[in-house]
Design brief:
By secondary structure, the protein is mainly alpha-helical.
Length: 179
């Protein structure tokens, strides 16, 4: 890969070669070379359709190995270089869920907030709103819960989750003395 990339650094096949090179470095556990290649690929080829798929494949490789540090790095690099890719909100939602599972509620909320701020047309938008509202409610942050549930209820389709959100909104208002 390196020999061909040095001869043809800007050819169309260079993108696939760099994606494969990243995977080779990952398999060799050469993290520094993998990160260097990933950063170059992201910076140089952020407008292509192949490069983000390479990042997603590499992230899955590390995810399957349960290498938290590396899949977090790869997915955050993906989000940095390809924020408008159609899987970006899904990756944010997944990372938020993983942070929440690890007990990092603030880290999870930061990922949910990015979805709410940047992906209002995505299917993960109402899910992120719901998670933020429930997180506030669980932490007895009733002011945050009222804000979150109000927005979520306005956006959500009729469902059991929406009904529970309405009841929790009412309880949050009661806790705040807003009868």
């Amino acid at each position: 890969y390196l020999k061909n990339l040095n001869q043809f650094p800007e050819a169309d096949i260079s993108i696939n070669a760099m994606v494969n090179l990243m995977m080779c470095y990952a398999n060799l556990d050469d993290r520094l070379s993998m990160q260097m290649t990933a950063e170059y690929l992201g910076e140089r080829f952020s407008k292509t359709s192949v490069a983000p798929l390479g990042f997603l494949g590499l992230g899955k490789y590390y995810f399957d190995k349960n290498d938290v540090a590396m899949y977090t790095y790869v997915y955050n690099a993906y989000l940095k270089y390809f924020p408008q890719h159609d899987r970006a909100a899904a990756i944010l939602f997944t990372l938020a869920g993983l942070r929440k599972k690890a007990g990092d509620e603030a880290g999870a909320m930061a990922y949910y907030q990015r979805i709410v701020e940047n992906y209002s047309k995505d299917q993960y938008y109402p899910k992120a709103l719901s998670q933020m509202a429930w997180g506030s409610f669980a932490a007895s942050n009733y002011e945050g819960a009222v804000k979150g549930f109000t927005v979520y209820i306005a956006e959500a389709q009729p469902s059991m989750d929406r009904a529970l959100a309405q009841l929790s909104l009412a309880d949050s208002c009661r806790q705040l003395g807003r009868y």
